[in-house]
Amino acid sequence: MNKPIKILSFGFLLIFLGFNGVQSYVTAYFSDANMAEVGFRSLILIYLFFILFNPVSAIFVSRYGAKKCMMAASIFYSFFILSLLSGSVILIYIFSALLGMAAAFLWTGQGSYLIRASDEKSYGANAGFFNSQQSLGSAAGVLFFGFLVSVLFFKSSFLLFSILPIVGFLLLSRLENIKSREENLDRFKLARKSLSSKTALRLSGLYFSFMFVFGLVIGILPIEIKNIIGAPYIGILSSLFYVMPIVFSFIFGKLSDIKGRKFMIILGYLLCAAGLALLYLSNGAILLISAILLLSVNYSIIRPVTMALIGDVSTKSNLEFLTALFWMASNIAVVSALIISSIFLTKTIYLISLLLIGISFTALLPLLRLKTEKLKELITKEAS
User: Would you give the distance in Å from CA 91 to the centre of its chain?
Assistant: First the structure.
């Protein structure tokens, strides 16, 4: 594991130790103040602006480099947390929108930097290591913030957690500045072409389908756990989606370098379909827990594999633009899943998800039969 990958991973660990700890309690904080709608609107604004600014972020990251964009973006995670202390709803909405914009730059920069700082043979291992550290930060943030809230006031906890993204910023400042050496690119044209590449759009279905399932998990699964087993088990079982990546992401990422990305993607589809089928059939603890285990293991596979896949199919000139496209597909999926799961509070949602997974796999299968070099060639040709 080279030094830049370690610094990148630990920087994100600190940023999301702060942010995810706070994010998990935003709706509860506003609910206590009889303003629950503010928390939900804030989260919607974050995801909406994340989606809208993905294409813009690709142009900036390609032009100015991932390091500068990630550093600038990380500061807004602290600003957002501090805005919660203001008591001003307008200010919170403004910084929610700014955070969504910053998230686009942060994650496009992360995808670009991870690939540019990695050897081709270690994309999966490095993506797995990064995902394990970021998941560790997220899990620790949720647990530690919950502890702080029990002994301190919300506002004191927010203030303490606002420092962590700043520490992440300082760590990211130690990164080597790696950026595209293609100085004469028409970046606006490349962004437009990359976002309209038929092969890239078909490949984005992979990212959409799995993140739709993840959005479903965070939206409706806590209700399912409460109804079947009981509310005390929500935290324990939901935490598996953080714990499993900590334990297995590096292993599965490394395995994808050895066995190939396509093998791991097919395995991910099988586990996801099996997990959704068990959720649909579950009316007791055993099937429900089995389903959650399968889906959390699937999440541990797909996160590093899809990060590494971007490196496999991209070139030095279109890396940032494909990263932005796949992030845009992922975030549209999460928002769609949250909206749909709020409408269909029944097992129908699992059938919808299974259908989506089946359509996605059917559309992706012709691409999986191609060699990686051919996929890269097709996308490069369509985006040129």
Answer: 26
Q: Which residues of the chain have pLDDT under 70?
A: 27-28, 31-33, 36, 180-185, 218-219, 342, 344-346
The reported pLDDT for the residue numbered 90 is 93
- Please tell me the distance from the alpha carbon of residue 303 to that of residue 135, in angstroms, as a whole number: 11
Determine the pLDDT at residue 27. 67
Q: What is the pLDDT of residue 93?
A: 93
Q: Which residue has the tokens 């942060």?
A: 106
The region that residue 260 occupies, defined by phi over 0 for left and psi between -120 and 50 for alpha, beta otherwise, is left
Half-sphere exposure of 218 (CA within 13 A, CB side): 18
> CB–CB of 225/238 below 8 Å?
yes
pLDDT of residue 58: 93
369 three-state secondary structure: coil
Residues 61/108, Cβ–Cβ less than 8 Å:
yes
Q: Give Cα separations from 116 to 129, 214, 308, 381 (angstroms).
A: 16, 27, 11, 21
What the block records as the tokens of 222 is 């806590």
**Angle value at C-alpha 132, between 9 and 100, nearest 5 degrees:** 60
Say if CB 174 and CB 328 are below 8 A apart.
no
Which residue, among 140, 153, 196, has the nearest Cα to 14 in the 3D structure?
140
Tell me which H or E stretch contains 228.
Answer: helix 198-228
Measured CA distances, 55 to 15, 208, 319 (Å):
23, 16, 12
pLDDT digits (tens, 9 = 90+) for 200-233: 999 999 999 999 888 777 667 777 788 888 877 7
pLDDT at 350: 85
Helix, strand counts (H, E) of the chain: 18, 0
Task: Say what the pLDDT of residue 224 is.
Answer: 79
**Contact criterion met (CB below 8 Å) for 285 and 230:** no
* Residues near 367 by beta carbon (within 8 Å), at least 6 away in sequence: 199, 202, 203, 375
Cα–Cα dist 47/59, whole Å: 20
